[in-house]
Amino acid sequence: MVETLAEFDPVIQEHVRRITNDETQVHYLGASIQNELIQLLACAIVEIIKKIKRAKYFSVILDYTPDASHQEQMSLIIRYVDLSSSNICIVESFLGFLDVNDTTVQGLFDVLEKELKDLHLDIDDKRGQGYDNGSNMKGKHQGVQKKLLDINPKAFYSACGCHSLNLTFVIYQRLVIKPKIFFGIIQRIYTTFANSTKKWQILKDNITRLTLKSASTARWESRVESVKAIRFQCLEICEALLQVSK
């Protein structure tokens, strides 16, 4: 767990480095301390549930995607009013990832319904639901949105604003010629190397910092990363392309 967190947290990353270099004997990687960390996380979840119950009404935000092992997982976030202090505010709390074996509308709904029951949250107290623009989630006739509204008509649906904005930019890029050509070239450079292990090795031999990335078709902001690799390593990538052409 600590090693996984080190991939995202520079403080923990430095801690792992010190352990690897034998600069400290206090590493917190033993079985007992990891069990204690898990217990602390469980206690934090319990406190969040208490706050949600105190607020009574809540909304759910869901998104699902396959993980590195190709297991579908759905993230569950609860939005509620935190009344635990004098500074009353709206809070969004991440409660965990839910394993999804059935990605049909009924399968996704069953996973959500079971999790709410396990958390002892009353589905009748739900006042909102937010998803991306996937038809099996937002579908107003057969989606998860519709199934929840059939049970609780007060659980109003709101589309994910970020996802909608992303789709707007993606459609814009397809319709306007200059960005279409620009990102088309970036994608062709990526596929030139990615389609062959030999060519990819040539690329790795020439660049030492940022690797090439495919231009995502769904998440506009991720295209920044695909542009960075070429912007900051233009000469190195040109050299790699020349070597591939020989």
TrEMBL record:
InterPro entries: DUF4371 (IPR025398). Pfam families: DUF4371. Residues 29-143 form the DUF4371 domain. PANTHER family: AC-LIKE TRANSPOSASE-RELATED, PTHR45749. This is DUF4371 domain-containing protein. It comes from Oryza brachyantha.
